[in-house]
Amino acid sequence: MKRVYLDYAATTPVDPAVIKAMEPAFSELWGNPSSIHACGQDARSIVEEARGKVASLIGAQSNEIFFTSGGTEADNWALKGTAYANRERGNHIITCPIEHHAILESCDFLKEQGFSITNVPVDRLGMVDPEEIRKAMTPGTILVSIMHANNEVGTIQPIAEIVRVAHAAGAYFHTDAVQTVGHIPVDVNTMGVDMLSISAHKLYGPKGIGALYVRSGTRISSIIHGGGQERGGRAGTENVPGIIGFGKAAELAAEEMESEARRLISLRDEMIKGILGAIDHTRLNGHATQRLPNNVNISFEFVEGESVCLNLDLSGICAATGSACSSESMEASHVLLAMGMSPEMARGSLRLSLGKWSTEEDVKYVLKTLPPVLSRLRAISPLAKK
Ligand code: PLP
Questions:
Q1: How far is the CA of 380 from the centre of ligand 1 (A)?
Q2: Closest to 117 (Cα-Cα) out of 97, 102, 98
Q3: Active site residue 107
Q4: Which class does domain 16-252 fall in?
Q5: 122: nearest Cα among 294, 334, 312, 340
Q6: Taking the CB of residue 207, how many other CB atoms lie within 10 A of it?
Q7: Interval 87-99: pLDDT, tens
C-alpha cells in the first residue's frame, strides 16, 4: 500500500546524507573524545566540528552549545539548572500552558521543591501576549520559558518581545525551539534568548541527541554529574555518532531551509484550503500566518480525532491527533483546551505535519481520502445526530 508520512512534527526520517556522515563513527572514529591519544583526539575533533555547525545554524558561539540526549533533557536542564543556580535571587518561574510536557512536568517538579510557577494564558490562536508576561513578573522572577513554536498547532511566539520584558525585570529567558530550529530562521542574538533547546530528530538527524544553547555568563547548574564532559556542564561520554549526525543535519538545514520553507508553506496552505473547503463544520487551529511552514491542525465537529487518524492509517496516511489516548480515558489536548476550545471540539482534532519528502501528490491524496472518511464517521457518530 502507498504510504504517506505526514507526522514530521513527531519525528523526521534521517536524511541519507546524515546516515552517510555518521558511518565513520561506527568504524574508524570510535574513540572516546576524552582520551588523550590519537584515537580519542580524532573523535574529539569531529565532535567539535559538529558543535560548530550546530552553533552556526543558530548564530551562537561553539562554546555555548552543550550536547544533551535530546529536547526533553535540554528543557529539563534549562529549567532545573537555572532554578537551582539562582535560588538565592528568587523562586518564581513564568511559563505558559501550551508548552511541551518536558517543560510543564519540570515546572511541576520544581513546584514540589518550593518554586512558584505562573502559567500566563494564551489567546484562541495560541499566542502569548508579552503584556501578560510583564504583568506576571515579580521581583523574585528568575526565569521565563516560552516555546518558540507549538508542536501541535504550529503557532510561532513573538520571542524577541517577550525576551525584552523578561530582561527588563532581570530574569533569564529560555525557549524550547525544538520545532523551529532548522525549519525557520533562529538566531539567538536577534531573539536575545539566554537558553534554547534543540532536538536533532526533528531536523532529519538521529534520535537521542539534542543540545542546550547557553549564552556565555548565564548562571546554570548541572543536573547530570559525573566525568565532567561538555566543559563540566553535562557529564557522560559523548554520543559521537549522534553528534556527527546532528552536525550534518544542521549543515543541511542551513543550506535548504529557505527554499524548503517556501515549498512547505505552499503545500500547507493548499492542504488547509482544500480540507476547510471540502468538509463542513471544521476549523483551523492555531495562527493562520504566524505558523510553522509544515503544520496543519484542524478540528472536525462530531468525530474523535483518533477515529479519523486510524481511518487515515488504513489508507496509508500517517497523521497525529492532539490528544493523548490512554486505555482508560481519551484526554483532550492540553494545548487546545488552553486555547479556549471545548473538550468535544478538541477531541476532534487532527495534525498533519509536512516535511522534506512531502509532495503535491501527497496533499492531493489526503484531499481525496479525508472527505469520505469524515462522511463515514459522521454518519455513525451519535454526536452528529444530536
Ligand atoms: N519540545 C517540543 C516542542 C517537542 O515537540 C518535543 C518532541 O516532541 C520535545 C520538546 C522533546 O524532544 P525529544 O523528543 O528530543 O526529547
A1: 36
A2: 97
A3: no
A4: alpha beta
A5: 340
A6: 16
A7: 999 999 999 999 9
Q: Which spans in 280-359 are helix H?
A: 305-314, 334-338, 343-347
- Look-up of cell digits 524548503: 260
317 C-alpha to center of ligand 1: Å? 22
Helices H / strands E in the chain, number of each: 13, 14
pTM: 0.97
Q: What is the CATH number of domain 4-11+258-379?
A: 3.90.1150.10
96, 107, 309, 325: which is the annotated catalytic residue? Answer: 325
Instruction: Give the angle 177-178-181 at the CA atoms, nearest 5°.
Output: 70
Quick: pLDDT tens for 184-217: 999 999 999 999 999 999 999 999 999 999 999 9
Q: Is 281 helix (H, G, I), strand (E, B) or coil?
A: coil
Residue 138: in which H helix or E strand, if any? none
Phi, psi values for residue 5, rounded to 5°: -90, 115
Place of cell 480540507: 275
Does residue 233 sit in helix, strand or coil? coil
Query: Is the Cβ–Cβ distance between 36 and 176 less than 8 Å?
Result: no
